[in-house]
Write a structure and sequence with these properties.
homodimer; 371 residues; TIM Barrel; 2 domains; 3-stranded antiparallel β-sheet; 15 helices
């Protein structure tokens, strides 16, 4: 039986790979960057904007949707695709990372945290996270894991690995059992283990033993240095099966993405491109550009002269800077469209480079402009 | 010589009229509702959204553009059309109304007020307002007038009428002289006079004597009752020439619009439809709908079942309510598109009713649902 997220490798360049991933919804190409639609919308965008940008997958946050409007409400409104009007792939995180940032009470059975919306006490278990993502109707669901802030004592990381493994087994079992989820919904396990390659390897092995449809590598890009991140990542990837997607969670800076692709990662999510956009940091072929800088006030040129996006086709740096400095939401949307367009173009460039065996050249180029 | 805003009446129904207005930019049909693009964007929308909505005219605020980014910057970036990417008609107010709300120091020569952006002291004169609108590159510029809050003692209203008349003469003269404005830019005078029909008539006569390309009726909908508003309006219209546009400033509620159209008004502006949208008040065929109401949480239907707009075609009340309650800017844009679509459809309906001699029926219908 084929997995619910089948990887067909189209090209390799060293450990890097460009693949077609096939799910119940359809296919997407890797390397893939997943824009983050926290509360059922990529901030300031709608489904038409997403269709025009064409991301392989969009991420939605289970944590947020669980609290508002509630997973049952999303289900009552037809599931995440009908709810948002977006018919492409949707991956939901499990809520583990958001809950982690709220300093929750974690016990062996699950986590208890306080809702940011109304202060109420909320309980999340591995089974509950699977249920919620089933109701939400994601194409790809993630298991509930336990994150640690880095640096962390080995004992803390070890406990997180143990709980993550135990919860993964419960999630896998529960996911097989329930019916209130899309037919063919994929479930990804998550590898933890901090920056200790041995713990990463062990966590990866224990996760792979449970036979997930894909594998997230979590708990990285949380304060450690890039070399440590890449060592831990390499140790995990070494164990992961070649025919399942590998998803490095929360990494979205160009250098981090390219280095991880070089190690064999398939997909990424990060709020950075959209959050930066709303603060006026523009991703361009020449590197970051701070649009708030006064020198752009009378600049009639596009955000990035080589960009084919709808924002660059029509509006000037001067206009967008003006809208941004006076707080017009139009600026957030138009700059977000550009930044996402830039990120998706970077992924296309990586895919093409892998197919031509030229990833090393792109890697040097990105390192030079973005280090 | 034809005026810079020539009215060709297509149909009449009593005092109401449906016209084609021809300017240097092209033509627009009346009755017309002008969405307000305060700072160079209708809040949360872009020029593509506006093209799809197709308003006859969009209003931009001279006051705001003068302070940020500055009229010279708009000029340096190619004028308001190239700046915003919108190629339809743009009318700029003179800044008089905004300045009025800041309790400025008014003398015979002009007004001095404090910038809301940086607290600096700003001076606006009739000539300065004309200069700014010339640089901004509006298709229709408005003279600087003096508003009064109502109710007001006759002496105050009288002073406002006198200053408005003196400033109108200076603006008219200055507009003829300057070259830094679009060829064929129209200049509209403004009728003041509070709710006193005699003062309204006098102000209208003195404004018409200066031969403007169109006439704003200002200083209404500022606290007086509807009967007083309509009496003052009728007194002004009685004096205004039939071949020039008549623009009732700041009125945007459906009943007010229909009553004013019945008296012969051609065009309107108001922030209400866009501001209401951002607060979750939806304009529908059945009247106002408060989308924040919990009963819409699981409502899978469109905002307005009979609305053909892009928002109603794709998204449910439940989804939009969710985005609105969690503060997603996507909600502001999508509901704004609907509310403006509704307003523009109302104007189409009025135009058609006038052409069929059925305005009275629409008037009763609107009064019933919106009173």
């Amino acid at each position: 039986m084929s997995a619910a997220a089948q990887v067909d490798v189209v090209a390799r360049d060293g450990a890097a790979r460009s693949s077609t991933v096939t799910t119940a919804r359809g296919t997407y190409r890797t390397p893939a960057f997943m824009p983050v639609g926290t509360r059922g919308a990529v901030k300031a965008l709608d489904a038409v904007d997403l269709e025009q940008l064409g991301p392989a997958v969009v991420l939605a946050n289970t944590y947020h949707l669980l609290l508002r409007p509630g997973a049952e409400v999303v289900a009552a409104l037809g599931g995440i695709h009908r709810f948002t009007g977006f018919s492409g792939h949707v991956l939901t995180d499990s809520g583990g990372y958001q809950v982690h940032s709220l300093a929750p009470v974690v016990d062996d059975d699950g986590v208890t945290f306080t809702s940011v919306y109304d202060g109420s006490e909320v309980r999340l278990t591995p089974e509950g996270a699977v249920d919620a993502q089933g109701l939400i109707g994601a194409d790809v669901a993630m298991v509930l894991d336990v994150c640690t802030t880095l640096p962390a004592p080995t004992a803390i990381v070890r406990t997180a690995v143990e709980r993550t493994a135990a919860w993964a087994a419960r999630a896998r079992e529960h996911h097989r059992r329930i019916e209130h989820r899309p037919a063919g919904q994929a479930l990804f396990g998550i590898v933890q283990g901090g920056v200790d390659p041995e713990l990463r390897r062990e966590s990866a092995e224990r996760t792979v033993d449970l036979d997930f449809d894909g594998y997230g590598i979590g708990g990285l890009s949380v304060g450690e240095g890039r070399p440590e991140l890449l060592d831990a990542l390499a140790a995990a990837i070494d164990v992961l099966p070649a025919d399942r997607p590998r998803y490095l969670m929360g990494v979205g800076d160009p250098v981090g993405i390219v280095e991880a692709v070089a190690l064999g990662v398939d997909q990424f999510d990060c709020v950075a491109p959209t959050r930066l956009a709303r603060h006026g940091t523009v991703l361009t072929e020449e590197g970051r550009l701070n649009l708030r800088n006064a020198r752009f006030a009378r600049d009639d040129g596009p955000l990035d002269p080589v960009c084919p996006c709808s924002t660059c086709a029509r509006w000037s740096r001067g206009y967008l800077r003006h809208l941004l400095t006076v707080g017009e939401p139009t600026a957030w949307r138009l700059i977000t469209i550009h930044n996402l367009s830039w990120m998706l173009a970077l992924m296309d460039r990586l895919s093409e480079a892998i197919q031509r065996g030229e990833l090393e050249r792109v890697r040097r180029d990105v390192a030079e402009r973005w280090a």
